[in-house]
Design a protein that fits this description.
By secondary structure, the protein is mainly beta. Helices cover 14% and strands 37% of the residues.
């Protein structure tokens, strides 16, 4: 019997443990090297072939022995396995050795692979010896290995969304009925054209002095009644001994720019006193005022002038908001602005009736400085001269000897009066105010169901048409409302219908000049629509929005409800307006509850529009369309407009189209009703 011993070493002379030593001959078997690489085989008979083997190693050739011998030696070296990493698309892969299984042996090396896409490319997944999307990932090299990193181009997402405004938006969408409700009369009368036949307005060129003008007028047979030096204009009438002088005579006077009649302006709504008071201000909820009041309820630093038939001085819902020091009556030429018609009082109440006081009605502005300016008589009729003086006075521009001055210009002038014809003199006055001050002028469009009346039709004046309630459907143009070059529309009411079934006609409820219970009345007309705009503008100014931005914001935040000829930019959304909403956010991301995590974002017009994303990483996302009315928190809140897709697996190099409507949400806890549709091209 023979025996032999040996050692297995690496190229550096270090023993290799765990090597399997096999022997084959008359006696066959196997053993394993010790920690220092040695082994012993006993009981051999005759020639025996001895081999060394270990996974991942190469060893010297087998050795044959036929008798007991000295120590035999095997030399080993670690196998080298190629790791071939390739890629599809555009990118690179880095290889980093992390750990080795046994000392410095190459076999069992653990390599980290990091796929790095080129610009505008994205890592998609692994193929070959690896799978999945984990990046970076690791692989242990034990054999010849091939890995492929797949890169793709971005996903593209495009589409269009639109806002869908829900109506009605009443405090209670289920109207009640009552037997104690006011009676109503007929529709508002159309505006007629009247003139003061004996009075003429003459404007002279600016190079003429006052003394020259007065002399010419006397020589021409005209008596001067009033003057406005700021535009070199004079109100005249024929002298007592010259009764036959006409407008043509005035036009032929040397130095005259133009001469015109002293046109009459009339109230653009008719009052309907009620026997019994019933607080039914549906028109406020229609324009989202309750939501707007959560942002601001107004400020007594905002001054709003009401140029009208005056305002009832002792009305319990108005007296604390009126400026008694500077209110003025240009019709009579004194400081008594008390209303003997009712129209101006109703208008003033819409803007600023004392609110939250447990009585009467609410005004749009809970806090406001109301400047009452009376330019009309007990019939609701005024004239161009009085109107012009009132406008200049309200804007702080009236500077005439013997006339009052106003050191505190109004931020907003409301004119719920109108004239169906063009008035050159008044146009000049309006242009002067708009070009030299920050004062905004709001005017009713008129009630003759024709083109917009003046002064609403002048450039720069905010022209307001009227809609009715039309419960429970979308409001529509009131049958009397003028149309054409409108900016916006607001509730003006319709006394001829009771669309919500509450046994009261759908007029606008506000303050009146009667005694209880008739100190609150229903009216209809664009006269009622205009102060809604003036009040909302007052809220916007109270919220810190600059006057120069007001009109653009009103346009972009109003709710489109039909043709621009009939509705302008739409029905004002007070909540959007006071927040100066300027966009709808289009977001690719994920949502958890009321929070949205953003991957990519763009924006469109607040009313909706077309959008496109061209570089979206492949992944699982949702697409959101969101009018975040009070932005900054990235939180979905009641009053926001919101819609979303389901979670979509967006793949690289693919195009997706998103369409749908965005609607207002009442509560976040409810399932969001509006969903967007997705299609893969």
């Amino acid at each position: 019997m023979q025996s032999t011993s040996g050692t297995v070493k690496d190229e550096d002379g270090n023993g290799i443990a765990g090597v399997t030593i096999t022997y084959e001959g008359e006696v066959s078997g196997a053993t394993e090297t010790s920690a220092n690489g040695t082994f012993t085989i006993s009981g051999l008979i005759g020639p025996t072939t001895i081999s060394a083997n270990k996974e991942g190693w190469n060893f010297s050739e087998p050795i044959t022995v036929d008798k007991a011998s000295d120590v035999i030696t095997f030399i080993g070296n670690k196998k080298l396995y190629p790791l071939t990493v390739s890629y599809r698309g555009f990118g690179t892969v880095t290889e980093t050795v992390l750990v080795t299984a046994q000392g410095d042996y190459e076999y069992g090396t653990v390599v980290q692979l990091l796929a790095i896409p080129d610009e505008s490319w994205y890592f998609s997944h692994w193929e070959g010896a690896l799978s999945g999307k984990t990046n970076p990932t690791v692989i242990t090299v034990k054999e010849e290995t091939e890995v492929i990193a797949v890169f793709t181009g971005p996903a593209s997402i495009s589409g269009s969304v639109s806002v869908k405004h829900r109506f009605p938006r009443s405090i209670t969408d289920n109207p009640t009925t009552s037997s104690m409700l006011p009676t109503v009369g007929s529709d508002a009368a159309a505006t007629s054209i009247r003139r003061e036949s004996d009075k003429i307005i003459i404007s002279f060129y600016p190079d003429m002095t006052e003394s020259e003008i007065v002399e010419i007028l006397e020589q021409s047979g005209f008596e001067t009644i009033g003057k406005l030096s700021i535009v070199n204009a004079y109100l005249v009438k024929p002298a007592d001994d010259k009764p036959g002088l006409s407008l043509f005579s005035a036009q032929t006077i040397p130095g005259v720019r133009y001469a015109q009649p002293n046109n009459s302006f009339e109230s653009l709504a008719v009052a309907y006193p009620n026997d019994t008071f019933f607080p039914s201000q549906w028109h406020y909820s229609l324009i989202r005022l309750p939501q707007a009041w959560t942002v601001t309820t107004g400020s007594d630093s905002v001054r709003v002038a009401v140029i009208d038939s005056g305002v009832k001085k002792d009305h319990p819902d108005l007296r604390d908001r009126l400026d008694f020091d500077y209110g003025y009556n240009f019709h009579a030429g004194n400081s008594d602005f008390d209303d003997d018609h009712g129209h101006g009082t109703h208008v003033a109440g819409i803007i600023g009736a004392v609110s939250n006081n447990g009585i009467g009605v609410a005004g749009i502005m809970w806090d406001v400085d109301l400047l009452p300016i009376k330019v009309a008589d007990s019939t609701g009729t005024g004239n161009t001269w009085s109107m012009a003086n009132g406008i200049l006075y309200a804007a702080g521009l009236l500077d005439e000897e013997g006339m009052p001055s106003n050191p505190y210009p109004a931020a907003v002038i409301n004119i719920s009066m109108g004239y169906d014809g063009y008035d050159e003199f008044l146009h000049e006055i309006v242009d002067l105010v708009l070009s030299t001050t920050d004062t905004l002028i709001v005017a009713a469009a008129g009630n003759s169901s024709s083109f917009v009346a003046f002064p609403a039709a002048y450039d720069g004046v905010i022209a307001v048409g009227a809609v009715d309630y039309n419960y429970p459907n979308t409001p529509k143009r009131a049958p009397y409302s003028n149309w054409g070059s409108l900016d916006v529309v607001e509730p003006g009411g319709n006394m001829g219908v009771d669309s919500d079934g509450d046994n009261a006609a759908d007029g606008v409820l506000s303050t009146g000049i009667g005694t209880k219970p008739n100190d609150y009345v229903y009216m209809q007309g664009t006269s009622m629509a205009a102060p809604h705009v003036s009040g909302v503008i007052g809220l916007m100014l109270s919220a810190g929005i600059p006057s120069g931005q007001v009109l653009d914001i009103l346009h972009q935040t109003s709710m489109p409800i039909g043709s621009s000829d009939f509705y302008g930019h739409g029905l004002i959304n007070a909540y959007w307006a006071v927040n100066a909403v300027d966009k709808m956010r289009i977001i690719v991301g994920t949502r958890s509850g009321d929070r949205v995590e953003v991957v990519a974002e763009t924006s469109v017009d607040p009313q909706g529009g077309e959008f496109a994303f061209n570089h979206i990483p492949p992944g699982d996302y949702q697409v959101f369309a969101w009018v975040d009315v009070q932005p900054g928190s990235n939180t979905i809140e009641p009053g926001d407009y919101f819609a979303e897709t389901e979670v979509i697996s967006f793949e690289g190099d693919q195009s997706y189209t998103i369409t749908g409507d965005v609607t207002e949400i009442d509560t976040v806890s409810q399932e969001i009703a509006a969903s967007l549709d997705v299609a893969q091209e």
